[in-house]
Structure formats: C-alpha cells, structure tokens
Specification:
alpha/beta; disordered C terminus; 15% strand; Hect, E3 ligase catalytic domain fold; 511 residues; flat; binds zinc ion; 51% helix; Rossmann fold; 3-stranded mixed beta sheet
C-alpha cells in the first residue's frame, strides 16, 4: 500500500479566489481518502504562498519523498502544491525518477504517464499568475486588433492608414506603383537599385526624400501583407484588408528574391547575431564568413562561423559553424514545443474548462445579483420609513450610508468577476499556439530567421558555451520541458481517447 502524505495550504493572498479554508480542505481530503482507500501516514499544513519557491514545510515533504519515506502526496488541487516553475518542476522530476509514485487530488484527475504529467503541467501553469507572466511583453490591444484582422501599425507602401475608422485602405495612386514594382521585379531583369529608382521617380521615397534602401525594397517584396496575411511576433493571422497584388505575382517575386544572392547572403549571414552571449566570459557572440576555394571543382564556398568577441576578458571558447548552431537552435526550440497533434486534446480540454468556468462565474454572479437586489430593497424601505417620519434624520443617514457602502462593495465584486472571469484562457491558448508553431518550425530545415524568432518567443538570455546552446525559457515553456518532453512527440490516437475518458494508459513513449 502506498504511503501518502496530505499537504494542505492556504495563504493570505488566496483570499480573492475560491479556495477552501484549511479546515474544509482537511475535511474534503478525509472523505476522499476513505472513499479511495488511501493510506495516509502524515499531514502537513502550511500557510504560505506558493507563488515563489522556498516554502519550508513543502520542501521538507519533497525531501522526505526523495529519502523514500513517502510515496505519494494528496492535496486539494495541484495549485496547492505549486504555483512556480521550480516547485512544479521538482514534483515532475520526482515523478520522472520514480521517487514519487502518485499524486491524488479530489478536484483533479492525475495519472503518472506523459499525458498525465502534461496535464499536471497545465494545472501548475494555468494559474493567473503564470499566464500573466507569459503575456507581460505582449500588448493586448495590438493582439486583439491583429486577431480581428486589422494591422495595428503603419500601412505598407500602396496602402494608407484611415485615421477615422482606424483601418488600412488601398491608396489608388501608390498601389499602382507598388504593383508595377512587383511586376518589374518578377521579370528578374531589374536590380533592387533599379526598382528603388523607379519608385523614387514615381514619388515613393524614404522620409528624407532619398530612394528606398535595398533592405526596404527587399522587405517590401517579402511582406505577406500584400497577399492578405498579417505577420506578428512570429505568428500569422488573416488580414481583412483588400489586396492589389495577386498570389501568383507575389510568388513570382519570391522566386526572384531567392536567386538574388545579396539578399540571400544578408539574411544568411546575420541569422543569429546580436542574440547570443558567450557562456564563459559574457561577451557578445559575433559571426564572420570565410571563403574556401576548391581547386578540383574551381568553386568558392562561403562558410559562416560564430565566435566570442572576447571583448571583456581573454576567452578560449571555440568557433562553431552556422550549421552546427542551427542544429542547436532546432533542438532547443523542439524541446520547448508541442506536437501539432496535441491540438485537439488541448482544445477540447480548454473548451471543457471554459464551459465549467463560465458556469461557476454565472453562479457567482447570480448570488451577487441577488444580494444587490436585497440591498436595494432595504434602501428603498429605509427611505420609505424615513419619509413616513418613522426615523430621525441621524439614524436614517447612518443606516443609509452603511447600506450604500455595502451596495458599492457588491458592485465592485461583480465588476471584478466580469473583468477577470476566464482571464487565463486567452493567453494560455496563445501560448499553446506558439508552442505548436515552434514545433513546426523546428522541423523545417534551414529557415533560420523563423527559428530565431520562435527562440526569442520561448525565452531570453541565450548563451553559447563549449559548443552548447542554452536558453532561459519563460515559465510556461520551462514547464513543457519539465514534463519529460512528452508534448514534443505526437500522441498516439489511442492515448488521446484513453485520456479523454480517463483510465490507465500504456504510453507509447517513455516520460
Ligand atoms: Zn567568451
């Protein structure tokens, strides 16, 4: 019989949330344990927040698990155990090593399989605190605009920003010029400079009146906006603006772009520069290209290398080739990704969660609305009484103020619930989409720019040491990797259906 310890926790910052009191948690777990016939050897009660690591009693519990004194933990909900990546990661690690054999929650089904660990990750990570962390750098308004299909930024050449209705419209004159530029370029007979001169002659220039730079021309031809796609922070969205460039013309321009070595070299050479620091001395990693001449075939090949600038102290870190570094990026991105086949599982899980939460919110709102009505009735009665001269002025004011304050408090609560209801759902959904995109990109060969973009989305503080690449992932991505990487494999269909109707499953891959 497994030896379980019960861990109950409630901290002062849980006040706002619907967390049971310690006494209620104890009571529920007692019932749950007797129903499930669980062997409880000890109880631990702690009143500390789990938002930061370092809860003394919790750490002692995990130490005891490591020593083999305990085999399982029972808690009211996963969020009683962990709300930060360190504690969550440690629990999952103990499950991976087998020191911890089981977790039980009256409110959450858990099974020690890769799928179960993945869902546990989500439970650890779904608290508002984490998703907040995740979306720190994302401007909400921008995102919403993008999702509606509106471009939040400056209109590309050939379009203009309509300031009145805040949309982007085709500009009749410049759109014709841009279209001609695409047509000229697609023939393959015109250089970037020639295109830039043509556009300047027609009145499209930089702010200072000079012709557009080669980079500006290149990025114009690359802009998927022209075929109705919005690119924002590594994700693609459907735009709702009108297009004046056909997909065929756009694709022709892309084909010509590929043949232009200049743009190719440019993107190629600088794919990972300005991003990585040396893991030994902390100086920046720079890139340089070397040419090698092959006598036999009379051909010159370009090789790109990355190395430490050694600008801080002497440093003996070796060079790495760009191909090698690309592989390292690929592996890293893959480690923090979700296989696209998880999407349906996640979606249905989210849908259930959303449905459940909206029911809870409805119930809460109903109770509050009732209270509000009661208070309002009391106020009216009080006024009647006062008008009938059954109350003196002073008593009336005192009572009236109390009731009014009370009413305000309830209204605030209603407002708060309306604002924060399922606050974590949207960023969580966005996170899983990004992680799925990361998986797709990690499996695409050679698109270094996209690889760089997703890596920057996953984390920061990139380091290269002894030919190994390190990244400091954001919490949610860290949690993905902590789950034994289960999410980076495709789930077998049986596992999903088994998972949806929870019972023991035989994982196809080891956690
Ligand atoms: Zn160095």
């Amino acid at each position: 019989m497994l030896k379980y310890l019960v861990y109950c926790r409630k901290s002062t910052d849980d006040k706002e949330k619907q967390v049971l009191s310690i006494e209620a948690q104890v009571e529920e777990i007692k019932q749950f344990a007797s129903r499930e016939k669980l062997n409880i050897v000890d109880w631990v009660i702690e009143s500390k927040t789990a938002k930061a690591p370092g809860r003394p009693k919790f750490n002692q519990v995990l130490d005891r698990v490591e020593k083999g004194e305990l085999e399982g933990i029972i808690s009211w909900h996963p969020d009683r155990l962990a709300r930060n990546s360190v504690d969550g990661g440690r629990i999952i690690y103990l499950l991976d090593t087998g020191n911890l054999k089981d977790l039980k929650f009256p409110t959450f089904w858990f099974d020690s399989t890769p799928q179960g660990k993945f869902m546990l990750n989500i439970a650890f990570g779904q608290s508002k605190y984490y998703v907040d962390n995740l979306s720190v750098n994302v401007a909400r308004g921008m995102r919403q605009k993008i999702r509606r299909g509106d471009w939040p930024g400056k209109a590309p050449y050939g379009y203009l920003n309509n300031r009145q209705n805040k949309s982007i419209e085709v500009e009749p004159k410049t759109s014709k010029i841009v279209k001609t530029a695409f047509q000229l370029f697609s023939t393959g007979h015109h250089s970037f400079t020639a295109i830039s001169k043509f556009m300047a002659g027609e009145g499209i220039t930089r702010g200072n009146g000079k012709p557009l730079s080669i980079n500006q021309i290149t990025s114009m031809f690359k802009k998927k906006f022209y075929i109705g796609t919005l690119e924002y922070k590594g994700s693609l969205y459907d735009g709702n603006h009108h297009c004046f460039i056909s997909k065929r013309l756009f694709n022709q321009a892309q084909a010509v772009l590929k043949t232009r070595s200049r743009s190719h070299d440019y993107a190629h050479r600088f794919a990972f520069t300005g991003l990585i620091k040396c893991g030994q001395c902390g100086a920046s990693i720079t890139s340089e290209s070397h040419q090698k001449y092959y006598k036999g075939t009379d051909r010159v090949a370009q090789y790109v290398y990355y190395r430490c600038t050694k600008k801080i102290t002497p440093c003996d870190q070796p060079y790495v080739s760009e191909d090698y570094l690309t592989k390292q990026f690929n592996q890293t991105v893959k480690k923090y990704s979700i296989h696209p086949d998880w999407k349906p599982t996640i979606d249905s899980w989210l849908a259930q969660k959303q449905a459940k939460e909206s029911l809870e919110i409805k119930a809460k709102l109903k109770t509050l609305t009732k209270k509000l009505q009661d208070t309002q009735t009391k106020l009216t009665r009080l006024l009647d009484l006062f008008l009938d001269s059954g109350l003196d002025d002073k008593t009336y004011r005192l009572k009236q103020n109390q009731l009014f304050e009370n009413k305000k408090k309830i209204e605030d609560k209603v407002q708060k619930i309306r604002n924060n209801g399922s606050h974590w759902l949207e960023p969580f959904n966005e996170f899983t989409n990004c992680a799925i995109l990361a998986h797709k990109i990690a499996h695409k060969k050679s698109d270094r720019d996209q690889l760089r973009q997703v890596a920057e989305n996953i984390g920061s503080n990139f380091k290269l040491k002894d030919k190994k690449f390190f990244i400091n992932p954001k919490t949610a991505y860290f949690m993905l990797a902590a789950g034994g990487g289960a999410t980076t494999f495709d789930p077998c269909p049986n596992a999903i259906s088994d998972f949806v109707t929870p019972r023991g499953i035989e994982p196809r891959f080891s956690g």
